Amino acid sequence: xxxxxxxxxxxxxxxxxxxxxxxxxxxxxxxxxxxxxxxxxxxxxxxxxxxxxxxxxxxxxxxxxxxxxxxxxxxxxxxxxxxxxxxxxxxxxxxxxxxxxxxxxxxxxxxxxxxxxxxxxxxxxxxxxxxxxxxxxxxxxxxxxxxxxxxxxxxxxxxxxxxxxxxxxxxxxxxxxxxxxxxxxxxxxxxxxxxxxxxxxxxxxxxxxxxxxxxxxxxxxxxxxxxxxxxxxxxxxxxxxxxxxxxxxxxxxxxxxxxxxxxxxxxxxxxxxxxxxxxxxxxx
Length: 284
What we know:
Strand order of the largest sheet: 6-7-8-3-9-10
CATH topology of the largest domain: Rossmann fold
CATH superfamily of the largest domain: P-loop containing nucleotide triphosphate hydrolases
Low-confidence stretches: none
Oligomer: single chain
Strand content: 15-25%
Helix content: 25-40%
Number of domains: 2
Structural class: alpha/beta
Order of helices and strands: EEEHEEHEHHHEHEHEEHHHH
């Protein structure tokens, strides 16, 4: 029997997209495959095509060449197909102000699911559930524009989760957030992945990506430079240099400790500082 995480959910074939002319492509022959239920960190320098790809995934942009497939079916761009697609593939923008537009938080979270044709009773039930799960109750009736940055991010995530998407795309979810709200968003992301949602996250935080992701995809000049496990990607000095990234701190520190003979290179490479600390305690 095919394992859940071996099932293809999203596929891009030779995508091209240009905002201005045929000589300057934001996507330049991009191809990749995403398996269901995976945690994917999408990384690369600014202008490498990450956000453009995300907008193509949700049907907001249509590639000028190439094909996209969701659960084996090629994308269609009529109104009905796009409405269905956006209930299954949701995006949380880097700036929540680009996403929030209703008068109150409750109306904001209700809008998408009601637009799908769900009955008001069912929609109310789902909205109440997501408000509770994401701890939005204290500001549920506030105007969206009056919220803090962290609260806006909670609401923009709730907008998507209430529709039970199969894929959720997070474009720099911790951008401009303080440490407290960054931890809160990270916790919400963990809840998503535990629920079996496929998560694609754009991030510049190599330490978080190394510990969190099942796979890392490096973008360069509108193409995929490398798609592999965090260990493979962050051990590839050439790929990191090409995408202006550095190795995660825990990986660099582990390699230094092994080189100095403090730790054995035969140890399993740690994914976080807590694992590295355990090795050092055992060594003592």
